[in-house]
Amino acid sequence: MVEKVAAGTREKLLAAAEQLLLTEPYDEVSVRAVCAAAGANPAAVHYHFGSKEALVGALIEARLGPLWADGMARAKGGRDSVPEVVDTILAPFVALASDPLGRLHLRLLARFVLGRHLTSWQGPWFRMDNWAPLLPELGPAAAKRRWMLAFDLIIMRFGSPELDEHGMSGPALAALREFVVAGLTAPGEHR
Fold first, then answer.
1. pTM of the model
2. The HTH tetR-type domain covers which part of the protein (predicted)?
3. pLDDT the model gives residue 87
4. Domain of residue 141, residue span
């Protein structure tokens, strides 16, 4: 019974944080406000997550991680597979950008990731160590750097407040895809 209550409190905290973070700037959402909105003890965020950053990381993973899970499971490594992997990455971004709640989630992702808020990502989609093997021509460190740059660019473009209900135009999406593929497949150092 205690586990059910803990799981219920954890979900209430995630839902409360989501509502607050989708409408308020990250820095203006306090742990106390999240706990109050969830009807939880003021220490509940720290008990369940450890910090505000870990709470937001868990929220992003819970809401967005499943969108990429299947694609990542099917991803194969190597230069020739990069365009297909990039398409797999971009498809959920395109779908989210066409939905009002999805656009809010993308903006939250952008504020959090591009703001370099530190958290320990749990899901495989969010860990660069899992992406590096998809670029076996490069060493792990170089592959991680390229993936980080690729994700920063994608997240920045899709998390832009200027993105409207029409999402990204076809030519803009094609240019983004081409640029990311070129960056990931460019010759480089093997280290």
1. 0.80
2. 7-67
3. 92
4. 64-185
Residues 6+ apart with CB under 8 A from 20: 29, 33, 34, 37
Tell me the angle at which helices 82-97 and 170-185 cross, rounded to the nearest 10 degrees: 150
CATH of the domain at 19: 1.10.10
Query: Residues 183, 186, 189, 190: is their CA dihedral positive or negative?
Result: positive
Q: Is 157 exposed, middle or buried, given 0-12, 13-18 or 19+ CB atoms closer than 10 A?
A: buried
Please tell me the total count of domains within the chain: 2
Residue 7 has pLDDT above 80, yes or no: no
101-129 pLDDT tens trace: 888 888 888 887 877 766 677 777 777 88
Query: What's the CA gap between 81 and 96, in Å, rounded?
Result: 24
What count of other Cβ atoms lies within 10 Å of the Cβ of residue 12? 18
Q: Which residues of 99-111 are buried (b: 16+ CB within 10 A; e: fewer)?
A: eeebbebbbbbbb
For the chain, the distance separating the N- and C-terminal CA atoms, rounded to the nearest angstrom, is 51
